[in-house]
Every structure is written in structure tokens, then in C-alpha cells.
Design the sequence.
């Protein structure tokens, strides 16, 4: 049997269930050739090509929240209300429909956990909880022994936390697992177990022994805040981060400037005029200049380039470090020219 990594592949929706307000889980059956087996891992994310509410095909990333074997996986999708792909999936993807999976990426799955990771802290907000839940599902069925795994989840309201009953069950049935939810908008009843009002602060962590591993998953601003706090409190803990920005659902728009910006490729005679409302990746593709890419959302690093000169605006990404950005490295899918000629190295 061959392990097939080539994309795209078709997937058929075989069931849909509501997880909580605004979140649905889709069970997908991957179509593979006879004798082939495709390797999709819980915690990784798949890139789906699907039309938005205006019918324009776009690629969006969704975490594999469950791998049920036999080429069956689950993804959980949150309605955003902005007319993007997630809203269209909510309205139109139903049992029997097919979608195109064009890739798999992401740096965190059960194999990211090392033998020495006995004490693990996971922090998520919103739909970012899909990654911790995907890992917990693998942990509860695996043979690795954990001393303690703590999940902290931040949400606006209790009824907006997906998988809550399953998380309660995991906590009850596994002595090594504890859950704490932080609710920003709902007013909580007095003495409600497992929940606190507001956002987690330093006091929630400062008296606890340092974890071996910290996993953070959520929006870019939330993840940045948590990374700064956690690295200050636990400087020696290993850190894994999966962050997403508005770039996953929205295209960055930059006001047009009077001067037309040009893009030059180092080592090439190629020079193109830039549409400043498009990312550098989109401009390169528009002009048939090849560049590696996959997620198109600032998550996978495949479109990493170096800005040799010129002025750019960067959409937030969590794949480049402060040092890399200082050295001119950028993700083409998250970078925009602003009225000055740019020289890049692909």
C-alpha cells in the first residue's frame, strides 16, 4: 500500500453536527485511489478550496480535530459572519456534498509531544480549542503516560465553547487532565466549577510548577499576549504556538497611493507593477512568476521570501521570528507593497 501525500484530493461530507453556537463539525471521507492511503494527522490543518458567499473560490485552513481512520477525518468550522468561506461552509456544505482538499500543513500534532513532556499546559481561545481537543483525543487513546495536562480555554460565553461535554468527560475519566474555562462576557453563577470570570492573568500560572511544554492556539493578538506572559513566567518551558490572523478570512486592503510600486526579483530581469490591494504572493501569481506556497494564510512558511529593499506592510503571522523579520524575511502571502519599489529574493 502506498502512502499518498499528493494533493488535491476530494472529500465527501458524510455527516454534520452542531457543536455549540456558531460551530459545526463536518465528518469527511477522503477519496483515494485503490491501494493508496493518505496520511492526515489530528492537530495538523488541511487547506480547503471552497467558494465564499460571493462564489469566489478561496483557500482556507481548518484544523483536523479528529482522525477516525479509514480516510475519515473531522473539521470544526466557526461561522464568522463576514461572508467568507467559513460562512459558506455553514450554509451550503451538507451530507453528500464534496469539497477539495488542496494540502496539509501545520507544525503541531501528537508527534510534537516528546517522551519527556510529562507536564503540559495548553492555552486556547475561541475556535483555537480544536487543536488542544485534537491532541487530547490522541492522548486519551495512546500509551504515553502524562503526569498532568491542563487546558485553559478563553471564550466570550460558555455556550460558545465547542466540545464542552467531551472535555468534561475527559477530565472526569483521566486523573491527569484538568480543564479551566475563562469567560469574558457571560456573568457566571457563584461557585461554578471549572470556570472563572475574565481573562487568565499571571496569577493563574505564577504559583504552579513550570510545565515541560506549553501549547498556545488562538487568534494572533491573544497568542502574542499569552506567549509574552508564559515565556516570562516559564522561561525554560518548551513552547509550541499555532496562531491565526484575520488574513485567514479577510483579504488585506491598503489605500491606493499616487506612486505605482514596482516589484523586482533578485537575479532576474523581471519587473512587475504591483497592485497594492494584493499580497506579494498574489501579485507574483498574477504575473505568472512561480513561487512556492500552500496555506496562503501565514501559517506554513512555504512562501518565505527576503525583502532586499523597499517598503512593505506585513499582515500578522506567527511563523517568522523577530530576528527573521529584522533580517528581511517575510511571508509573501502576508506582505504588501506601499508606494516604493521593492526588491525581493525568492
Sequence:
Amino acid at each position: 500500500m502506498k502512502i499518498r501525500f499528493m494533493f488535491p484530493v476530494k472529500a465527501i461530507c458524510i455527516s454534520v453536527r452542531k457543536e455549540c453556537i456558531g460551530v459545526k463539525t463536518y465528518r469527511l471521507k477522503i477519496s483515494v485511489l485503490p491501494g493508496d492511503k493518505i496520511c492526515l494527522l489530528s492537530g495538523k490543518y488541511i487547506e480547503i478550496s471552497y467558494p465564499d458567499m460571493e462564489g469566489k473560490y478561496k483557500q482556507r485552513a481548518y484544523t483536523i480535530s479528529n482522525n477516525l481512520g479509514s480516510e475519515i477525518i473531522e473539521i470544526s468550522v466557526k461561522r464568522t459572519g463576514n461572508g467568507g468561506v467559513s460562512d459558506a461552509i455553514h450554509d451550503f456544505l451538507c451530507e453528500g456534498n464534496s469539497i477539495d482538499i488542496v494540502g496539509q500543513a501545520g507544525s503541531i500534532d501528537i508527534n510534537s509531544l516528546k517522551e519527556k513532556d510529562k507536564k503540559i499546559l495548553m492555552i486556547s481561545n475561541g475556535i483555537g480549542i480544536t487543536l488542544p481537543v485534537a491532541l487530547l483525543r490522541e492522548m486519551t487513546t495512546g500509551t504515553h503516560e502524562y503526569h498532568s495536562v491542563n487546558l485553559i480555554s478563553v471564550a466570550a460565553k460558555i455556550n460558545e465553547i465547542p466540545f464542552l461535554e467531551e472535555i468534561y468527560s475527559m477530565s472526569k475519566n483521566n486523573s491527569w487532565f484538568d480543564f479551566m474555562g475563562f469567560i469574558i462576557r457571560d456573568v457566571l453563577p457563584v461557585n461554578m466549577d471549572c470556570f472563572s470570570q475574565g481573562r487568565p492573568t499571571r496569577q493563574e500560572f505564577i504559583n504552579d510548577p513550570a510545565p515541560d511544554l506549553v501549547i498556545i492556539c488562538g487568534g494572533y493578538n491573544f497568542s502574542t499576549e499569552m506567549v509574552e506572559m508564559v515565556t516570562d513566567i516559564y522561561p525554560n518551558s518548551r513552547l509550541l504556538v499555532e496562531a491565526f490572523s484575520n488574513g485567514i478570512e479577510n483579504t488585506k486592503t491598503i489605500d491606493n497611493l499616487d506612486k505605482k510600486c514596482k516589484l523586482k526579483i533578485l537575479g532576474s530581469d523581471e519587473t512587475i507593477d504591483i497592485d497594492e490591494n494584493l499580497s506579494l504572493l498574489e501579485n507574483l501569481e498574477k504575473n505568472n512568476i512561480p513561487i512556492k506556497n500552500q496555506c496562503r494564510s501565514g501559517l506554513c512558511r512555504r512562501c518565505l521570501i527576503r525583502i532586499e529593499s523597499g517598503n512593505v506592510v506585513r499582515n500578522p503571522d506567527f511563523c517568522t521570528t523577530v530576528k527573521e523579520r529584522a533580517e528581511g524575511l517575510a511571508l509573501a502571502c502576508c506582505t504588501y507593497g506601499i508606494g516604493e519599489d521593492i526588491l525581493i529574493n525568492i
